[in-house]
Design a protein that fits this description.
single chain, 148 residues, alpha/beta, Rossmann fold, four-stranded parallel sheet, 39% helix
Length: 148
Amino acid sequence: MEKILVVCVGNICRSVIGERILRDRLPARFTVESAGIGALAGHSADEDASTVAAEHGVDLGGHIARQFSADIGREFDLILALEPGHKRVIGETASELSGRVMLLDQWVGAKGIADPYQKDLAFHQKTFEEVSNAVDQWVKRLNPEARS
């Protein structure tokens, strides 16, 4: 499972943060991208999400939001959704992908991570921390040699 897609709604906050953190923490052999089930296609990362990410050393620069599609989903071994509803939508869009979809926070509660869009910076900070914590758990599972 070396091709990973992170999916939220707009693809300008949570999924791009998850994408960039995963890229930073996984070896180069992994391909990590993101998309949104209701993407603000063509938009850059949210300004507040970018500010908080930068405070943690994560650069969201150059991101361009894109709409999730079955064709995009088929390119990936693992699709990490930010909320249970996103898993449902992906399954409805392309039922053959259902077995590839898991929650980003699968190993830390599996309740989903709330959308910070148009919320205050404190909410964005909390979201960043939740995404980062969830990513750490995936990195341990996807890259076992890093555990030693």
